[in-house]
Amino acid sequence: MNPVGLSTLYWKEVLRFLKVTVQTVLTPVITALLYLLVFAQVLEDHVEVYAGISYIVFLIPGLVMMSVIQNAFANSSSSLIQSKMVGNIVFLLLSPISPLEFFVAFVAAAVTRGLVVGLGVWLTALWFVDLPLAHPGWVLLFGVAGSAVLGAMGVVAGIWAEKFDQLAAFQNFIILPLSFLSGVFYSIESLPPVWREVSRFNPFFYMIDGFRYGFLGVSDISPWFSLGVSGLFLALVSAVCIRMLATGYRLRG
Amino acid sequence: MTSAISIRDVHKHYGSLHALDGVSFDIEEGEFFGLLGPNGAGKSTLIGILSGLVRATRGRAAILGHDVVKAYRRSRRLLGVVPQELVYDPFFTVREMLRLQSGYFGLGRANRSWIEELIETLDLADKADANLHDLSGGMKRRVLIAQALVHRPRVVVLDEPTAGVDVELRKALWHFTRKLHAEGHTIVLTTHYLEEAEALCDRIAILNHGRLQALECKEALLDRHPWRFIRLQFSQPVGELPEALQRIVVEKGERCVVLRMHKVEDQVGEILDRFRAAGLHVVDLSTREPGLEEIFLEITGEGEAAS
């Protein structure tokens, strides 16, 4: 084991996003607030997803989680693609850091950024609305699990992509649709039966539904089931990611 | 005794291209070793395999007895590599980068005094808190050397460390690598500057088309060349020369010629007599022993020096 190597790599990845907080923290917080203002303004009086819960209160946990997962993905994927393009990935590859340590450090840093941005969105949203916090433990659990899944997907995308264009395609054609169609803005119960069933195959739906349960105490699906699906998906993505690192796929010639 | 570097039947294939084709040799601890070869010879691939950046298709390599694949943690801790490209992380300062690199190797705060020593030794003190992005090419090269040494490796590989640097920095780097060698480090140097290898290295390997073409101590390699060069200056312009002389002339000026003469077969006195017979009066004569460049060209069969 190389615990100092692991913690150094984690700290380096955290420092990297802390050095550009306007881009990595402030911008996504403002983007989430713009969504909040626009959607809440338009739909507040027309939509009630759960009985007794206003649309804006329904929307905020979903927006927080969407910010968490998108930024977790951005952290690991952008760091890796930049290192590969600039060539400084060589410093890591020359070091005695194992594939597992590499994976854990990148994912932990992605979780950190996801949670920092999520905390920023949540705290700012509290200015606008009195948001309940029914089960803080579930909030934290799904926040960590969701950002870990996306952090790991970011590592996969960062290793796979050989240019920024390919990474943008991964983000725009996979991450963005899955997060927008995961029930951030609506409950899947309000969808037609076909789309409701399709949504159940979207792993992001379970992360957001479970996260929302932590705030509101109500959800479309049991949080335990959502946790199981999220955990399975995390295990699957992690296995792919560690395999890629262990074989040196697109990293070692 | 365990070799500093052991390479056994190493192959690397990229599809139909054989970048390395069964290379085997050892580098002993404490050597100053030169790895030469034209572009595409396989030098960087071989260094990549030693450092874990490239996976060999077949064969094995070890650093001080530790297999670079099976015991990669041990082998990488014993090896410091100065990469050829001027790569850097634009997010960090020199000191931050060195501390991070030290951490990757499992070294904590206790290593900070060595980091400060490296900063001083490599004349980086003025720029220690400057962002790497703002440094000149020469300073970036010094940082790369500091990064390679941050974990005190016993074997140091310098992949063309003086490529593109000015004369002053080249001299400083020569001095520094000699100092490292004197302190007991095993040094492996790849370079395009053959006079650099000639000045610094004890033993030299020449790779060409992925195969080892020569592996000898520098003196033995130079002795393999059976030629010497003689420059003759005449009092009058050089006209048409007899056939027997033309075959040894490699350069011809208005009043001078450079001859390539076989050390054993060609007698200087006899050649001078022939020039005299051709009506040319020698006013000056100088000789030059062959350098590594001539040996390199002969072995690799290249039309020009490694470029």
Description:
The complex is a heterodimer of chains A (253) and B (307). Chain A has 253 residues and is mainly alpha-helical. Chain A has one domain. Helix content of chain A is 75%, strand content 0%. Chain A contains ten helices and no strands. In chain A, helix 6 runs antiparallel to helix 9. The model of chain A has no long low-confidence stretch (mean pLDDT 93). In chain B, helix 3 packs across helix 4. Chain B folds into two domains: 218 residues, 3-Layer(aba) Sandwich (Rossmann fold); 64 residues. Chain B is elongated. The longest helix of chain B has 16 residues. In chain B, 33% of the residues lie in helices and 28% in strands. In chain B, the strands form three sheets. Chain B has a six-stranded mixed beta sheet, sandwiched between helices. In chain B, strands 2-1-4-5 form a four-stranded antiparallel beta sheet, with helices on one face. Chain B has a four-stranded antiparallel beta sheet with strand order 12-13-11-14, covered by helices on one side. Chain B is of the alpha/beta class and 307 residues long. Chain B has eleven helices and 14 strands. The interface between A and B is medium-sized, with 29 and 32 residues.
CATH topology of the largest domain in chain B: Rossmann fold
Number of domains of chain A: 1
Estimated share of beta-strand residues of chain A: under 5%
Biggest β-sheet strands, sense, barrel of chain B:
6 strands, mixed
Order of helices and strands of chain B: EEEHEEHEHHHEHEHEEHEHEEHEH
Total count of domains of chain B: 2
Gross morphology of chain A is: globular
**Structural class, judged by helices and strands of chain A?**
mainly alpha
User: Unreliable runs of chain A, pLDDT <50, ≥5 residues?
Assistant: none
Series of H and E elements of chain A: HHHHHHHHHH
The SS-based structural class of chain B is alpha/beta
Shape, principal axes of CA atoms of chain B: elongated
The value of Rg of chain B in angstroms is: 24 Å
Count of DSSP strands of chain A: 0
Backbone CA Rg of chain A: 18 Å
Separation of termini of chain B?
A: 36 Å
The chain-level mean pLDDT of chain A equals 93
